[in-house]
């Protein structure tokens, strides 16, 4: 990777967790941490206060960053303290949401007031307004509908009149809505434009390098095949007995950017792209004409990072069924060509069927799958040995303990998580969140949860690093109502709250 790419990775680009829970304070240079803390801790638990100083003089710069454990605490502090005087200072302080270095600050940005929620397709606007009005003044609700059928697409936007109202709804609304702060359209556009501009410049700069590299070897009379072979001959990577790679990217990016990036390496013949919007990542199976190009793609593009923060993971696709599917596709295409050009040769058809049968038999009875069938303890997707799968507990079972899960670079599919975590027994459910790198596993017994923590903490699932911790339970007076989805009955029970540490940056 380039020095630029490494510097991007070292930069603190991660969002605060929970979102918008860190405030930026402009204050008198004479104020100290001891002066700020009493004024700000009134609004909630403070994780950290940082007051930058001049590197040469050691004098305070007159600014501070205050990190709360809750978004609503930050929102309340902004509402009450902005342009007010604190401590012994006669100068009013300015309090606002802390933004990233590359963002222009705007204290009235709508992104602090708008929530994105998941809804069922029969939901009505009045139903949503009734629920979300409990947390503050709702400005508008927009149900996303299909342009042709007018059917609800399964999500909606709730706009509040203030950041504090949106923060209260984000923390207290029914969990079934999976509320997150919505990213403004113009910000998404800027992000996509930065990716597109980078892809264009990266592609053109590398294309020119490739062109210069093989210009002395290219013979126009021999055509494109010789051109590609000349470029491939310059690749120093050793072939590793695979020509297909598996690419995952989190957060997800459109297929055209994956295509452009991997097409820089000569010989790409196919790109099969899928996306998982709920879990916030995309996947592509890319095939090259030769093994050297595939090896080079893994070597050069694994852990590549786009300017806007998306990270891709590249590894060989060693799934025998995928390889069999590609070979079968070639057989079918060859036979179709034979039908189109002339009468099909029945002998050729018989050979194609025999070859297909051989491929299927090899794929379904190869060493990898045969070993899995023979030994239910075998789990190729996990880096540690796991016990055999066990049935899930009843979904209505009482939660005895929750495990807090942290993933890097993105969550694996929920089916993989359930497969891994059910093996300790008494698993109720595993959940992840869109565009987030954490999740939860709920167990009906403490024993099973502790076994999962002991076994899976520090392991990898599908090449994704995993941390499994005991969920920190701290009752909150401000967060006590859980809505029973089936009976619509309010239960006055303490809702478990997680203090999120910066687990992502600590995972290496």
Automatic annotation (TrEMBL):
<dbReference type="InterPro" id="IPR012677">
    <property type="entry name" value="Nucleotide-bd_a/b_plait_sf"/>
</dbReference>
<dbReference type="InterPro" id="IPR000504">
    <property type="entry name" value="RRM_dom"/>
</dbReference>
<feature type="domain" description="RRM">
    <location>
        <begin position="417"/>
        <end position="473"/>
    </location>
</feature>
<protein>
    <recommendedName>
        <fullName>RRM domain-containing protein</fullName>
    </recommendedName>
</protein>
<dbReference type="Pfam" id="PF00076">
    <property type="entry name" value="RRM_1"/>
</dbReference>
<keyword id="KW-0694">RNA-binding</keyword>
<dbReference type="InterPro" id="IPR052462">
    <property type="entry name" value="SLIRP/GR-RBP-like"/>
</dbReference>
<dbReference type="InterPro" id="IPR034203">
    <property type="entry name" value="RBM45_RRM1"/>
</dbReference>
<feature type="region of interest" description="Disordered">
    <location>
        <begin position="480"/>
        <end position="508"/>
    </location>
</feature>
<feature type="domain" description="RRM">
    <location>
        <begin position="21"/>
        <end position="100"/>
    </location>
</feature>
<dbReference type="GO" id="GO:0003723">
    <property type="term" value="F:RNA binding"/>
</dbReference>
<feature type="domain" description="RRM">
    <location>
        <begin position="113"/>
        <end position="187"/>
    </location>
</feature>
<dbReference type="InterPro" id="IPR035979">
    <property type="entry name" value="RBD_domain_sf"/>
</dbReference>
């Amino acid at each position: 990777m380039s020095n630029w790419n490494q510097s991007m990775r070292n930069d603190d680009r991660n969002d605060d967790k929970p979102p918008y829970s860190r405030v930026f304070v402009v204050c008198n240079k004479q104020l100290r941490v001891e002066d700020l803390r009493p004024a700000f801790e009134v609004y909630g638990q403070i994780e950290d206060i940082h007051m930058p100083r001049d590197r040469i003089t050691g004098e305070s710069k007159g600014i501070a960053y205050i990190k709360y454990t809750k978004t609503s605490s930050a929102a309340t502090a902004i509402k009450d303290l902005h342009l007010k005087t604190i401590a012994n200072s006669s100068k009013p302080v300015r309090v606002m949401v802390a933004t990233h270095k590359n963002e222009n600050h705007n204290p009235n940005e709508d992104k602090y007031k708008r929530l994105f929620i998941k809804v069922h397709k029969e939901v009505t606007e009045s139903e949503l307004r009734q629920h979300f009005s409990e947390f503050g003044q709702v400005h508008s609700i927009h149900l996303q509908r299909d342009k042709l059928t007018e059917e609800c697409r399964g999500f909606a936007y709730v706009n509040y009149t203030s950041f504090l109202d949106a923060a209260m709804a984000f923390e207290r609304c029914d969990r079934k809505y999976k509320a997150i702060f919505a990213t403004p359209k113009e910000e998404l556009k800027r992000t996509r434009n930065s990716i597109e501009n980078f892809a264009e410049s990266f592609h053109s700069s590398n294309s020119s390098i490739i062109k210069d590299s093989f210009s002395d070897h290219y013979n126009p009379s021999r055509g494109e095949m010789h051109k590609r072979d000349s470029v491939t001959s310059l690749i120093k990577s050793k072939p590793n007995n695979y020509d297909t790679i598996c690419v995952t990217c989190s957060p997800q990016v459109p297929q055209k950017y994956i295509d452009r990036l991997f097409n820089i390496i000569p010989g790409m013949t196919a790109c099969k792209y899928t996306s998982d919007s709920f879990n916030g990542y995309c996947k592509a199976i890319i095939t090259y004409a030769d093994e050297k190009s595939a090896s080079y793609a893994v070597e050069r593009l694994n852990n590549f990072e786009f300017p806007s923060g998306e990270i891709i993971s590249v590894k060989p696709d060693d799934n025998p069924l995928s390889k069999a599917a590609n070979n079968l596709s070639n057989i079918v295409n060859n036979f179709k060509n034979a039908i189109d050009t002339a009468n099909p040769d029945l002998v050729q058809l018989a050979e194609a069927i025999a070859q297909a049968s051989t491929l299927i038999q090899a794929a379904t009875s190869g060493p990898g799958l045969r070993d899995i069938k023979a030994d239910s303890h075998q789990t190729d997707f996990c880096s540690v040995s796991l016990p055999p799968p066990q049935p899930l507990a009843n979904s209505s079972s009482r939660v005895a303990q929750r495990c807090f899960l942290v993933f890097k670079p993105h969550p694996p599919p929920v089916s993989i998580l359930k497969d891994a975590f059910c093996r300790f027994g008494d698993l109720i459910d595993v959940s992840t969140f869109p565009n987030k790198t954490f999740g939860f596993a709920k167990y009906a017994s403490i024993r099973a949860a502790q076994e999962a923590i002991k076994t899976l903490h520090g392991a990898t699932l599908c090449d994704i690093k995993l941390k499994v911790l005991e969920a920190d339970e701290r009752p909150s007076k401000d967060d006590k109502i859980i809505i029973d989805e089936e009976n619509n009955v309010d239960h006055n029970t303490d809702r478990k709250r997680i203090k999120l540490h910066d687990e992502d940056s600590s995972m290496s």
